[in-house]
């Protein structure tokens, strides 16, 4: 698969000059994301595009390209694929839809499969936006996606949902290693990509959006192999029965019973999210945080309500919130001042004194030494009060335990710099208590699955 | 209550000059939000603050102020309140905490209640950030809140959660009429505020964050009276039993059984959210959209996956997604071109042709005339393709049915202007399929509650 994701040359068959065409956008994406290999636009309609010479057909190319992106309609794509095979081309993307998800296209898809088997072609799609090797700068991909290089690989059975999750991750400050629109999975299945990702050094964490798959056994075996070495999170659509029909007319796959899938995901060691946003939160959490040693959580705040909201979710996600030791309690009173009218326990609510960084930081230091397995820190944003970023980064340097930060009453626009500094050093930042709680929930879920599977060493 | 929310004069007792002090921030908020009445800083420590003369005590004021914000500690606040009463002051806010939520403070709170009863004082708090009459420009409020004037009133038993919801609403492009931190509710209870909001012309929609209340009967009677005339959405914390204890040490209230509350909310005609973000989505939906005539929903898209995700949620929320009429189907094929390899039904997935505004808009026009009760429109963002905002606004002008827009792979940063134009004209915009689905879910929930209560005329 290395040739597929890092080709030395890419040919685009059926590319056009119209700004709104699929082909032109694929060409733009390759150029704008600084593809370092050779690009061959293949079309008899143009002499050149974006300053590159065009070739009338595949046979005219000066070399056999590593990858061909096929941009013609669903009928012609089959013939182009046959031509690719006979030339010895081993990697292809078919963008067009209209195959097994569409009455008369079923037979065409059978032919596609036959051609790929005959020539040993690795085919992405059909019915896909393509893929983006974001880390490597290879974008055979015909739509717009705002992202940055990172270590999360995203496999999506839907372009729209995949783009939604990628954008949510971008807004959460999380980058991608690869984005793959698996489409109809006529040849390359989820399992193939997952097997590749087991050893892909660019990828630390894997996310899946799944409508359904026919080859359940292979799918779950590959999931399990991957989840044994890297965190895998999935969002599987299908709460409602009627969704099956819609999924079938989309990528031609049966959604299948949700509960059967959920059980199998657990067996495979894969954590499950229930919406695109939850999938983004799961991936952010699993990508940024170390696993906790157990389920004892400490919450630190100077505004109680959000910690209660988080606590409410955390308890149902399996976290325990043990009381503080008497020693810690006394020590905290000493720092915040005995006169403050507040009962100190866990969640540790310092009230007013807590919004002074010189109080917040020593209390955080003290708590990080107490026997907890993870920490959820809250901070209420006020433009006149400095967020104790420096202090938290110093403290974080002394501990291997997971720390999550929730900033309240603010968004990434206002605290982009602070968030980036915290996240670069492994403290994920969220803007609602429930997102912070969910992030910790997915982390504990991953730990427990690894425990049960015997994957913790 | 008019004097409380629109006072002609506000005295701030215990204000200080230190930039980080609670009192100084309250003073800044009044000034920065252009309070049009008279402001009296009351403190013996300063001669003047922000160019305003200070008064050493309440007795020195040139008039009896309409409202006093009491910024001193929890013990001294009781004496100041007594002084207010004896002067004939009828409205007060006590900011300090340390009362019924804190062992030795319980007796102080009993005294506060007695003083207010004796003098007929309407008291906000104690243990609160204060309140903000955002529409009227009156901010006796000591923290930072980014918001804009609008028609949603937010009552919150927690400052931090209330700020979180306010900021989520701000990011969703939704403004506030009033923000009220109810705190310990020693005198003014949820019920008092809700009774006032029944006839508050600035408020169209009401949101509540509730930890718990002791006077359940009155609370639910007031909720029901309010919900009969305005949409009310609540987020009640308390999924986990242990949360009770934490809520008690926060605002001294019992969280109580979640299921008891949920049943009572339904009885009262109040829709229920399960997180701060869901509350924001419920409020946005209920504030911007007309009620649907029934539960027949139509989805329009050119990228199927997100519509499947939304559909999955929508079906479990009570929406039906009926098939298209043969006539509509034929008409759509005529517009998008017969050759497009796609099965047209509901969700209407136009695939490729749909991203041309000149295809999208006429299909939308056609569907708006079909017998559906509400619409969920998807658009996949691409900076090179114009979102058909103009067209949708024209179509929206011809229908009274609710229309929700989901923009995929983008956020408000990139499409702020387009979003504002759509939202100003009553088409709420969301950035994930699940948020769009939830918005419609809350809308149908509201309609059904009104139906059952006999409130639909």
Which features would summarize this protein structure in a list?
ATP binding (chains A, B); Rossmann fold; 5-stranded parallel beta sheet; 18 strands; 17% strand; ligase (chains A, B); ATP-binding (chains A, B); Succ_CoA_lig_flav_dom (chains A, B); homodimer; elongated; 6-stranded mixed beta sheet; ligase activity (chains A, B)
Describe this structure in words.
2 copies of one chain form a homodimer. The first copy, chain A, has helices at residues 2-5, 22-32, 74-87, 106-119, 159-171, 190-198, 216-227, 243-251, 258-268, 276-288, 304-316, 326-336, 357-369, 389-397, 416-424, 433-453, and strands spanning 9-13, 38-42, 48-49, 52-53, 67-70, 91-94, 122-124, 131-133, 149-156, 176-181, 205-210, 232-236, 271-273, 297-301, 348-349, 374-380, 403-408, 429-430. Chain A has 457 residues and is of the alpha/beta class. Chain A has 3 domains: 1-128, NAD(P)-binding Rossmann-like Domain (Rossmann fold, 3-Layer(aba) Sandwich), CATH 3.40.50; 145-288, Succinyl-CoA synthetase domains (Rossmann fold, 3-Layer(aba) Sandwich), CATH 3.40.50.261; 290-436, Rossmann fold (3-Layer(aba) Sandwich). Chain A has a 6-stranded mixed beta sheet, with helices on both faces. Chain A starts with a helix and ends with a helix. The model of chain A has no long low-confidence stretch (mean pLDDT 95). At the A-B interface, helix 5, helix 8, helix 11 and helix 16 of A face helix 5, helix 8, helix 11 and helix 16 of B. Chains A, B: This is CoA-binding domain-containing protein.
């Amino acid at each position: 698969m290395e040739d597929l994701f890092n080709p030395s040359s890419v040919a685009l068959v059926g590319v056009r000059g119209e700004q709104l065409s699929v082909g032109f956008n694929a060409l733009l994406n390759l150029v704008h994301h600084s593809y370092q290999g050779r690009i061959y636009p293949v079309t008899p309609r143009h002499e050149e595009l974006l300053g590159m010479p065009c070739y009338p057909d595949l046979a005219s190319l000066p070399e056999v390209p590593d990858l061909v992106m096929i941009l013609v309609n669903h009928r012609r794509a089959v013939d182009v694929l046959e031509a690719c095979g006979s030339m010895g081309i081993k990697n292809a993307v078919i963008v067009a839809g209209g195959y097994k998800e569409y009455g008369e296209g079923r037979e065409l898809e059978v032919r596609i499969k036959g051609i790929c088997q005959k020539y040993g072609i690795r085919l992405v799609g059909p019915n896909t936006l393509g893929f983006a090797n974001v880390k490597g700068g290879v974008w055979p991909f015909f739509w717009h996606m705002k992202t940055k290089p990172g270590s999360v690989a995203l496999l999506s059975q839907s372009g729209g949902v995949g783009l939604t999750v990628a954008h949510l991750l971008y807004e959460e400050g999380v980058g991608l290693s690869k984005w793959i629109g698996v489409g109809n999975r006529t040849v390359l299945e989820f399992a193939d990509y997952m097997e590749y990702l087991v050893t892909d050094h660019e990828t630390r964490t894997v996310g899946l959006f799944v409508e359904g798959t026919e080859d359940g056994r292979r799918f779950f075996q590959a999931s399990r192999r991957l989840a044994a070495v890297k965190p895998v999170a999935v969002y599987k659509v299908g709460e409602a029965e009627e969704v099956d029909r819609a999924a079938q007319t989309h990528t031609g796959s049966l959604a299948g019973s949700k509960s059967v899938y959920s059980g199998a995901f657990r067996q495979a060691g894969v954590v499950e999210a229930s919406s695109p946003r939850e999938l983004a939160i799961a991936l952010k959490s699993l990508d940024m945080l170390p696993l906790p040693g157990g389920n004892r959580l400490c919450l630190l705040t100077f505004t109680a309500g959000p910690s209660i909201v988080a606590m409410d979710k955390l308890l149902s996600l399996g976290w325990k919130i043990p009381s503080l030791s008497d020693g810690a309690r006394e020590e905290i009173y000493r720092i915040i001042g005995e006169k403050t009218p507040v009962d100190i326990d866990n969640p540790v609510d310092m009230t007013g004194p807590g919004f002074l960084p010189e109080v917040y930081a020593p209390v955080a230091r003290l708590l990080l030494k107490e026997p907890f397995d993870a920490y959820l820190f809250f901070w209420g944003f006020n433009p006149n009060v400095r967020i104790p970023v420096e202090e938290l980064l110093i403290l974080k340097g002394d501990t291997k335990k997971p720390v999550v930060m929730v900033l309240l009453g603010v968004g990434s626009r206002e605290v982009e710099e602070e968030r980036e500094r915290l996240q670069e050093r492994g403290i994920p930042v969220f803007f609602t208590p429930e997102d912070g709680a969910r992030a910790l929930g997915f982390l504990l879920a991953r730990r427990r699955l690894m425990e049960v599977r015997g994957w913790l060493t």
